[in-house]
Task: inverse folding
C-alpha cells in the first residue's frame, strides 16, 4: 500500500518518493494530458487504442492510479489480481457500471467518477433525437443526399408534431430532469418513472407527473426516452412485452445504455411497423451496430456521442485530476463512489 505521512489536516497523505504512477487507458484532451504529465508519472495512450484485458491487468499491477473510461470493463477478477500499490480507480465518465464496485471495496481500492459534467450535453443530444425521430429527419437527409427529392409537396415526408404528445422519461436523475426542462419548452406532456418520486416542487417546475410503474409509463408514452443506469433491475427492462405495449407509432429514444433494451424485440417491432422509429446513441455490443437498425429508414443511429463536446470532456478530465490530487493528499475525493474508504 502507499507510504503514508501526516498531512496538514492530520489525515494520512498518499505521497510517494516521487510522483504517483497514473495509467490512462484512452487518449484524453491535450490540456488534460498535459496537466496530468506535469503532476504525476503519467502513462498516456496517444494512439487511443483500447486496452486489451491483458493490458488492463498489467496496468493494474503497475500503477497507483488507474484512469479507465466507461468502455473498460474492470471486473472482479481484474480487481482481485491488481497489484498492492493500486489504491484508486479514477474513472473518466459518470457511469460506474463498468467497474465491480463490490470487488473494489473488498480490496480497499477507492473508485471515483466524473458526475454532472455531461448532463446538459447528453440532454441536448436526447432532445435532438426526440425531435428528429418524429419529424423523420434521417429519412429527409437521406432523400436529399440520394438526389431523389423532387420538391415540396403537401403530403410528402409527413412526421408528427411534438406539442401535446406524451414524453415518458425513465430515470429522473440529472439528465432526465435536464431533458424534462427542455421538453417543457416544446409543449410536450411529461410523465416519468423513477426509483423515488421527486419532490413536488421539482414536479411542478418541470410540469412532470409521476407514474407508479414502468408498465404504465410505457403504455402512456408517445415518445419514451431512457435515462437510467444499467443495473440488475434495469438491464433488459424494455423487453418484448413492454415494447409490445407501446402505442402504435410510438418512438423509443436511448442515450443511456444499450443493455436497457431487448434489441431483437425492438428490431421486430420496427420491422413490423408497430413503432414509428427509434433514436439510438448506445448499443448492446458497441461498437457493433445491428445492420437491421442501420437499414431502417426511421432509426437515427449515432456513435455514442451524448457526452462528446469539447467543454464536457475537458471538465471531465479536470474532475479526474482533482479526484487524484485529493486522494494523493489523503483527503476524500469530491467524486468518491464507494463509502467507507478513506
Result:
Amino acid at each position: 500500500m502507499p507510504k503514508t505521512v501526516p498531512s496538514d489536516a492530520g489525515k494520512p497523505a498518499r505521497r510517494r518518493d516521487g510522483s504517483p504512477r497514473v495509467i490512462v487507458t484512452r487518449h484524453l484532451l491535450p490540456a488534460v494530458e498535459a496537466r496530468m504529465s506535469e503532476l504525476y508519472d503519467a502513462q498516456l495512450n496517444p494512439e487511443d487504442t483500447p486496452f486489451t484485458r491483458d493490458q488492463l491487468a498489467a496496468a493494474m499491477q503497475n500503477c497507483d492510479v488507474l484512469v479507465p473510461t466507461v468502455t473498460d470493463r474492470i471486473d472482479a477478477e481484474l480487481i482481485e489480481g491488481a497489484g498492492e500499490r493500486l489504491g484508486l480507480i479514477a474513472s473518466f465518465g459518470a457511469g460506474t457500471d463498468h467497474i465491480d464496485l463490490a470487488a473494489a471495496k473488498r480490496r480497499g481500492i477507492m473508485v471515483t467518477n466524473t458526475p454532472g459534467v455531461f448532463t446538459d450535453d447528453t440532454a441536448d443530444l436526447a432532445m435532438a433525437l426526440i425531435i428528429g425521430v418524429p419529424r423523420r429527419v434521417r429519412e429527409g437527409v437521406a432523400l436529399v443526399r440520394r438526389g431523389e427529392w423532387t420538391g415540396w409537396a403537401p403530403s410528402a415526408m409527413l412526421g408528427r408534431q411534438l406539442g401535446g404528445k406524451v414524453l415518458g422519461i425513465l430515470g429522473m436523475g440529472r439528465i432526465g430532469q435536464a431533458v424534462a426542462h427542455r421538453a417543457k419548452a416544446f409543449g410536450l406532456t411529461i410523465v416519468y418513472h423513477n426509483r423515488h418520486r421527486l419532490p413536488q416542487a421539482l414536479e411542478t417546475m418541470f410540469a412532470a407527473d409521476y407514474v407508479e410503474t414502468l408498465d404504465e409509463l410505457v403504455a402512456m408514452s408517445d415518445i419514451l426516452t431512457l435515462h437510467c443506469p444499467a443495473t440488475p433491475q434495469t438491464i433488459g427492462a424494455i423487453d418484448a412485452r413492454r415494447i409490445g405495449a407501446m402505442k402504435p407509432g410510438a418512438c423509443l429514444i436511448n442515450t443511456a445504455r444499450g443493455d436497457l433494451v431487448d434489441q431483437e424485440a425492438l428490431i421486430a417491432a420496427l420491422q413490423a411497423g408497430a413503432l414509428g422509429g427509434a433514436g439510438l446513441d448506445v448499443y448492446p455490443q458497441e461498437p457493433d451496430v445491428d445492420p437491421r437498425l442501420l437499414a431502417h429508414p426511421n432509426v437515427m443511429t449515432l456513435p455514442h456521442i451524448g457526452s462528446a463536446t469539447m467543454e464536457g470532456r475537458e471538465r471531465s478530465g479536470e474532475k479526474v485530476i482533482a479526484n487524484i490530487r485529493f486522494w494523493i493528499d489523503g483527503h476524500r475525493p469530491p467524486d468518491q463512489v464507494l463509502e467507507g474508504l478513506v
